[in-house]
Design goal:
418 residues, alpha/beta
Length: 418
Amino acid sequence: MPPTSKSSTGSQREEHGVPLLDLQRQDAPLREQFMEALSRVCDSGWFVLGPDVAALEENVAAYCHVKHAIGCASGSDALLLALMACEVGPGDEVILPSFTFFATASAVTRLGARPVFADIDPVTFNLDPGAVKPLVTPATKAILPVHLFGQCASIDALAQIAQPGGLAVIEDAAQAIGAELDERRAGSLGQIGCFSFYPTKNLGGAGDGGMLTTHRDDLADKLRLLRGHGMRPRYYHQAVGINSRLDSFQAAVLNVKLPHLDRWTAMRQANARRYTERFTEAGLDRVLGLPACAPGRRHVWNQYVVRVPDGCRDPLRQFLAEAKIGTEIYYPMGLHEQPCFAYLGYAATDLPETYRASREVLALPIFPELTAREQQLVVDRTAAFFRQASGGHALAGPKFLQQPAAESRSTGSDALPD
């Protein structure tokens, strides 16, 4: 996960380059509201669950267009609790992408189940339904798509695969609060949605926090039971749960921030559009794969991730770092390549799109308060790198990645509000 930034603001920004993320720009205007909300928690003496958490659950349920939202201690715990509620256990298999953060797969293995990694779509980076279908076996218990970088996966196609065998579809929406597929919100598309409030997320708290969403009364009741040691009533345990309660300080901060989320999302969308326009104007779409918004999606741009082919990704990142421009690699290898999953027997290239993406992706600054001038600096330094690499000649040549194409990119761009 990207580090929080303490970069300066104002005229010093240019001197110090461009941070990957600067939380101070977002949080500073809300400081007094944070302090008032936290003071109320202190005065109440209710530090775990309680009225602030109940209010956040109600607010998130309304925002995600679901009946229930259940707070928990982290996004990682949300994934674990969702799998527990769907009774995933030893001998079961869960199909999920390899191109994702570690928590998606670790939740599966912690329950004694086997992660089965499927390849991704090369444009959206999300789970490819065509790669999922052949992996379904009698042992498959669930499909766990990730709405990566802020864009919904192809849930409807995955649901069609899941339906005949009664498989659960659990959404890892940690990076995608507010994202939509055909005007339906992330977290409302599967049986359970899982969210993270880690500070770097689009809706980030002041520490760890998570949320689960569902339409179903039975699953909501089970999730509430499991997050508190399976205890109901006090000291009587109906199930073996875990200790994963959202604390009131985090809920209080998030209740202050949630009303601003759509405005921050619009700012991210405007930044994404500006990047795409300026990279294209500079001819950099010939040497970079620019991210696309798939049809029918509301992309919330948790990350703006370009693809840098031909072994140029790491040199470009170093070149940008010398100009104090922050970048990150999400992710440097697929989970199927991680040493802890060697027992599964995957070769690195068994998932070719995942392998290629992990060697090409580079995330650029996209936080809401990023200025147009800072974005232009990112574009200018990227152009300078490729001019240097080409011996000073103008950029030329075919685009490395023919995205569906101008159509998909323009669909996404035109849909982005100012």
